[in-house]
Amino acid sequence: MSTSWHDKLLGGFRRTSDRLVGNLAGLGGARLEEHTLDEVEEALIGSDLGPETAGRVRARLAEGTFERNMEELGIRLVVAEEVEKVLAQVAKPLGIDAFPRPQVVLVIGVNGSGKTTTIAKLAHLFLEQDYQVMLAAGDTFRAAAIGQLRTWAERIGVPIVTGPEGGDAAGIVWDAVKKATEIGTDVLIVDTAGRLQNKRELMDELAKIRRVLGRLNPAAPHDVLLVLDATTGQNALNQIEVFKEVAGVTGLVMTKLDGTARGGVLVAAAERYGLPIHAIGVGEQMDDLRPFDAREVSRIIAGVDTGPRK
């Protein structure tokens, strides 16, 4: 029996939810006085939800509506409501609507973020929606990246354009766009180098790719997706800051939420940057990367939704 997406979310966010519930433990049942509100706010910041969301929850609890003694579950319900408001603004599936085709999606992210695997999972998601997909191995800096992406392309049954290690990434993208256009591919997903040690070098390479794309299709790239590893916690926010400057990020994909208690960073990223979060990853399987429902995820993070759906 296959596991439902809801159950995968429950499992994926369990450590995050347990951490938040643990941080709030003992704060219910007392009058919400100033020092209690301070403790709630600190507990939420300690759960990686970010100071903005923590402050909004505190303000809600301080409004006076909750002057009666409030149980811990009541506090978590308020957390769920405020988190939902934040996530609802950014939970947006990636639409394939470019014309002429293909829609060119540049995927960026630091090495180790799960970028290559995420590209394969995105391709799988688009194939499920009956789109034709092609991959381009634009991370020529690492031979392993080219080989890994080729293996994934063969496994999911999509064409791939590659070149030699150390080759010209922009030239590979040029070839891929021409080929995708000729055969009527809907989506071209382009892997890119993930080295941030030399921001200038990475910026120059991405700028060159953009110039090449512009000659073939002035609207391309249509999307620049940043893959974030949730296990890095607050460092993921620093990566958004850098890549926004370097690459003009248009949307986010957050992976490895199942491997961390720091999944609250999803909320912090949404609140601080407001970039669309197109999908989240909660496992290793091909269908463990999906768009998400803001209410569902908010209630799971807050420890309000803890069981399978009936």
Automatic annotation (TrEMBL):
Free-text function comment from the UniProt entry: Involved in targeting and insertion of nascent membrane proteins into the cytoplasmic membrane. Acts as a receptor for the complex formed by the signal recognition particle (SRP) and the ribosome-nascent chain (RNC). Interaction with SRP-RNC leads to the transfer of the RNC complex to the Sec translocase for insertion into the membrane, the hydrolysis of GTP by both Ffh and FtsY, and the dissociation of the SRP-FtsY complex into the individual components.
TM regions (residue ranges): none
Reaction it catalyzes: GTP + H2O = GDP + phosphate + H(+)
Chief localisation class: membrane
Lineage summary: Bacteria, Pseudomonadati, Pseudomonadota, Alphaproteobacteria, Sphingomonadales
Residues given in the record as GTP binding sites: 109-116, 191-195, 255-258
CDD domains associated with the record: FtsY
The keyword Cell membrane is assigned to this record: yes
Family of this protein: Belongs to the GTP-binding SRP family. FtsY subfamily.
Gene name, Swiss-Prot/TrEMBL: ftsY
Localization in the cell: Cell inner membrane; Cell membrane; Cytoplasm
Entry EC number(s): 3.6.5.4
Record note on quaternary structure: Part of the signal recognition particle protein translocation system, which is composed of SRP and FtsY. SRP is a ribonucleoprotein composed of Ffh and a 4.5S RNA molecule.
Domain AAA+ ATPase: from-to ranges: 101-308
Keyword field: Cell membrane, Cytoplasm, GTP-binding, Hydrolase, Membrane, Nucleotide-binding, Receptor
InterPro entries named in the record: AAA+_ATPase (IPR003593), P-loop_NTPase (IPR027417), Signal_recog_particl_SRP54_hlx (IPR013822), SR_rcpt_FtsY (IPR004390), SRP/SRP_N (IPR036225), SRP54_GTPase_dom (IPR000897), SRP54_N_sf (IPR042101)
Matches recorded under Gene3D superfamilies: P-loop containing nucleotide triphosphate hydrolases, Signal recognition particle SRP54, nucleotide-binding domain
SUPFAM superfamilies assigned: Domain of the SRP/SRP receptor G-proteins, P-loop containing nucleoside triphosphate hydrolases
EC class name: hydrolase
Protein name stated in the entry: Signal recognition particle receptor FtsY
Membrane topology (UniProt): Peripheral membrane protein
SMART domains hit by this protein: AAA, SRP54
Domain of life: Bacteria
Residues of the SRP54-type proteins GTP-binding domain: 102-303
Pfam families for this protein: SRP54, SRP54_N
Signal peptide: none
